[in-house]
Design goal:
Blueprint: H1 3-18, H2 23-30, H3 34-41, H4 49-58, H5 63-71
Length: 73
């Protein structure tokens, strides 16, 4: 994956940790598998728009905010 996927994964992980959520809790809130959250956070996978919106909603933010933060890393 590219450095952008890694940056986006890091932003997701940082926001999840800031809210004191485990990967399991975020995965449950999104309705996706915990392994997929792990792969996203490590930059091994690139989320679809639908998944990014689910993650953002579960983190009480917007997909555009997550993307903007990743662009500036």
């Amino acid at each position: 994956m590219t450095s952008f996927e890694k940056a986006l994964g890091q932003v997701i992980a940082e926001e999840r940790k800031r809210q004191c959520l485990t990967q399991e809790a975020l995965a449950d809130a999104c309705g996706i598998h915990v392994t997929y959250i792990s792969q996203l956070e490590r930059g091994l996978k690139s989320p679809t728009v639908r998944v990014l919106r689910l993650i953002a909603k579960s983190l009480n933010t917007s997909a555009s905010t997550l993307l903007t933060r990743a662009e500036h890393d």
